[in-house]
Amino acid sequence: MPPRRLYFDNAATSWPKPESVYRAVDRFQREVGAAAGRGAYAASLEADRIVAAARRHMARLLGSESSRQIVFANSGTDSLNLALHGWLRPGDHVVTTAAEHNSVLRPLGELAVRRQIGVTRVACDSAGLVDPDDIRRALRPATRLVAIVHASNVTGAIQPAEEIGQVVRSHGAAFLIDAAQTIGHLPISVNSLNADFLAAPAHKGLLGPLGTGLLYIRAGRESELLSFRQGGTGTRSQDDRQPDSLPDKYEAGNLNMPGLAGLAAAVEFLEQEGVAAIAAREAALADRLQAGLQEIIGVTVYGPADSSRRVGVASINIRGYDPQEAATLLDCSFGIQVRGGLHCAPAMHERLGTLATGGTVRFSLGAFNSESDVDAAIAGVATLARNAID
Asked: Could you give the C-alpha distances from 48 to 28, 31, 67, 169, in angstroms and in order?
């Protein structure tokens, strides 16, 4: 019999989902099945209600002034591309960091060639943390945007986003936050962060289905944020230009209705459980995991030592093993499912000194991990490390 599945890849996508999410997706597929905003019959109106509920729950979770400021997308990557391609103009300057995911680095690389934007990548320390003063020093008169990842998907380091937001606000630039590793894991207030844009996938800490994402847009910024794609919205169909109003300006084509039905249920679950309570449980598990891994001879642990400065992500290397090999052995031998590699964040690995050696083995916790999961993971790593020594 194969070993019990111990899932530690929540930074990629959360699993399992709440039972209510499975039920909501299944109910939509079997009982509703209609597009939103495309009809006046009962099933279509029910689809409208589901979208409105998902938007309302998300706005409340983020402290958004209005649910209309929540735009749905296909993924966190899609949301980031909307913000970056829609906001930046030829000759603009952007400040970002070495901790970023390729979902920011690659669009900026494309825009540097296509629109001749300037990009300054601020360094981070060996734990993955950025100094707000370095952001301040990188600002230029032409800086139109500062884009940071809220927490590193490699080390778990939580950036001082509130301080950075104050720096950006005083300069007059816009502030984009990639919340892929924090939304649903930590309480977030877009106003406290001074966020102009906050992008996130719905399938990670939010516990929703794959194929869904969102972009928060601060009121007024939509007048300058160009639409990423154009097409049908079910509104103002007589016009040959995309509507200017939120959220229609950015939601051309049919929405992922099964995904949004699941997302509405997922965020309702988070509201009932309390994100702060989930954050406390994950922090306790992260401390237990970090402490156990640090005691194993032959294991290197990366990231902040201070648990208040990281989310539930622990990256390690085990002496004698390539990261991909270690990840495969953990799965085959113990049912421990982790990710090995660069985690789409090459600049972060360059800073850690792990780029040339294939990256790290990453454990990432979620809302449904337990102490017994963590203890089994520590034991599995200890066995691999001991076998390498023997």
From this structure: 12, 14, 14, 36
Number of H helices, E strands in the chain: 11, 13
pTM passes above 0.85: yes
Distance CA 257, CA 14 (A): 19
Q: Please, is 238 exposed, middle or buried when counting C-beta atoms within 10 Å of its C-beta (0-12, 13-18, 19+)?
A: exposed
Strand partners, 148: 177
Q: Which residue has the higher pLDDT, 66 or 232?
A: 66
C-alpha dist (Å) from residue 46 to 49, 155, 261: 5, 42, 11
CB atoms under 10 Å from CB of 244, counted, come to 11
Residues tagged active-site: 344
Helix %, strand %, coil % of the chain (to 5) = 40, 15, 40
Query: Given this model, what pLDDT does residue 237 score?
Result: 63
What is the rounded distance in angstroms from the CA atom of residue 335 to the CA atom of residue 2? Answer: 7
- The tokens describing 251, both together, are 């939601």
State whether residue 213 is helix, strand or coil: strand
Neighbouring C-beta atoms of residue 40, cutoff 10 Å: 7
